[in-house]
Amino acid sequence: MDPISIDSFARFIRTRFQRLDILVNNAGISGAIFDTEAFISLNLKSGESDSVNPGFVRTDLSHNLGQFTVEEGARGPVMLAFEAS
Length: 85
Description:
The protein is an all-alpha fold. The model has no long low-confidence stretch (mean pLDDT about 75). It contains 3 helices and no strands. It folds into 2 domains: about 1-50, no CATH class; about 50-85, no CATH class. Helix content is about 40%, strand content about 0%.
């Protein structure tokens, strides 16, 4: 994403919700890279920061060589998302 898009999205979140509970950075989707640091530096209200790694998941992107199923890989991120609410 370009800096203008990041700034626009951050302003939308700040205006509409006043805070960001969860930010999912999935760099594996179509090779997209989201500059998390640039987004966080926009000072949206946030209490704390956590991160989770789903591990090597069996998907088309990994040519189905991963050791975890999609459901197993999603378990950690979903649990972390529910903790934020």
